[in-house]
Hints:
The chain is of the alpha/beta class. It is 55% helix and 6% strand.
Amino acid sequence: MSEPTTDVTEPPVPESPAPEVHTPAKKAERPTRKRMSLWDRSRLLLLFAGLWFVLVWADVADNPLITFEDSMRLRLEDGQWLIWLAGIELVRQLHFLVSEHWSGYHRFWTQRVFGGSERLMQRRLSDWTRFRLARLIKVLLLIALLAVVAGQVLETSPILALFEAPALLWSAMPLILQLLFAFFFVAFQFIGLFWLLTRGGVDTYYPDDITTRFSDVWGQDQVVERVKENIVFLEDPDTIEARGGYVPSGMLLWGPPGTGKTLMAEAVAGETGKPYVFVDPGAFTNMFMGVGILKVKSVFRKLRRLALRYGGVIVFFDEADSLGSRGALAQGGPPGGGRFAPFDQFGCHGGHYLSEPSRYLVSTAGRDAAEPAPDPDARRSRFVMGGMNGMGGGGMGTLQALLTELSGLKKPRGFLNRYGRRVLGMRPKPPPKYRILVMMATNMPEALDEALLRPGRIDRIYKVGYPTKAGRVRTYEGYFDKVAHELTPEQIDKLATITPYATGATIKDLVNESLIIAIRDGREVITWQDVTKAKHLKELGPSQNVDYVQRERHSVAVHEGCHAVVAYRIREHLQINIATIEIGDTYLGMVASIKPEDQFTTWRSEYEADILTSLASLAGERMFFDGDSTSGVSGDLTSATLVATQMEALWGMGTTVSSYQSASAFQIGTPGGRGHDDDATASARRALADRIEDHLSTSLRNAEEILRDNRMYVLAIAHALETHKTLSGEDIEAIMSGTEGPLVDGRIYADPEYQRQLEAYHDEVVQLRRGQTAKVITLPPVPEHEEEPTQAAASRAD
């Protein structure tokens, strides 16, 4: 017999509550109409009554035989149009009164009658069609109003008055023409002038006119990806608006010139197939106040029409910094872009062999040291004088008009919409959603007004900076594909490496200059030599074709050879790009270096290498010219001193840790601070100067040791510079490594016999410098290399 089974029922497992989905709450509407004041309810009725009594009084005044009662009776018969208007106004006020107390009646008119018709119009008619119909209705209403007025004047029906109106106009034409002539004679100089001044500066390109695509924008992939997001929202706004967001309508592209900001705006227009409106930077600069405001309004009026017609429009303001000032946007970018003040003197161009951070440091520090302390009163006066000139290049009111237009796209528009609907007790209809993408470009973002950059006007701010090495390679490939060339991928990669801050514009110009050099030489294919010549021409400019005397040519060559040898031996963060003794605008010669890769930090050892390279000229001239030196080392000493000062005083790269700048700012050890010695500041400065001098003296001795160990390499590079005037980094490397370079065969300088000839030539030039004679010493010729130097030396030893 089986045991009875009992069903065990497990308690139900409670289900986890479904996540709540937040839906945006709709704005609660009033159940009834808002109550009107007694004056608002009765003012039109009082106006009609007053007008009717004025007409009655006029009849009595014109004909004294008519009594006041007879005039009222006549007006009741002849002035029924005024009574009808008063009756319509009375019915309208009764309608408002009922809506203020009866919620069902109010909902019926607002939601079913007017709301239903509006929904029907929005569903069946596009924004462009509704715009055209509204304009047609406005014209018909204006004609009807003119017909009623003409009927009253002619004492006939409005329809007959329309047919009689041309004859009346023709009979009154002489008087009309006289009035028009007088009006235009007086007003043409103002109206016509202002209208003409608002023309121009705005170019409209329709979808078929733009052929630029994102595939044509090279080297800015990270910015292009962000810009594509704006295009998605522009073409499919419901994606974000259905979730309670809004479509970003403003974009600022900022960065150095030539990086592709304008090209990117054209690509946006080409990808979307929308009209593209280009606003010239000088369009808002006018001699008359108010013209810029009219031009801003004219531009946005055109943008609204194009947006309705094509479903969207892109407007691009180039050089947007001309529109306004007072802005403050932190900007970065490659250092050393400005004028290199410490090395403007006529001597060795000591800045070109420095790393970019060192060049920027030397330039700014030298400029700050040369400028006097600002006068607060003078700065205040400059601010006041600048403020009277308006807010930016556009003149007074232009920027404010632009800000208003950018924020006013959601305001109701149209006279009948804003005022006619209010007469009927209806709210003005909101404008259609204008799909206007405002794009701006500038290389001076700090000059833009902060009100212009706030979200809602400019929603996205992207930096279009210098392209990375990969971007430069892609840009070089794109431009070289358009011309015939024989450059290998390795050479294009090397070219991208030795042009670290090249933009799309400079790369295009370099390729074009290479093509010009090839055509000048009678060739159709660009070679690597054409590219290097074009690069040297763009960097250094054309030489002045001024010949040195021999002793000065040799001293400049030795000077630059010392820079090159020390830079090659100790600097790993930079590689030599070019060495020359051709006279330029502000230098007798230079050794320029570049980064082998993109680098954003600088180490202490790299700054030490920069100082050693700077001091190599002084150490070398003293060593090769019996303790003598030229004034050409002044720029080198300036750069070395400023870098050493920053290392000792600010960066903790010297013998102390504290920051001299911070100590001076907080008056540590100075009067009024923690110390009480009146000479504390002077003592601190002397101590800092002593540390800098010790630092530089040690670096100078190290540079002397390096040059002493590489004496023959200095003479070899000097000989190559005297022979060819300009050498590439590959040629310097060939001399230092004893290999064959593009222009120089470095193997010949490994021959001991040839080294003795170079040493003898140097001694003769030194003796010639002492005598200051016109004697010319023959430069050792370049021998033809037929066998390895080691084999030649062995054969001579045998």
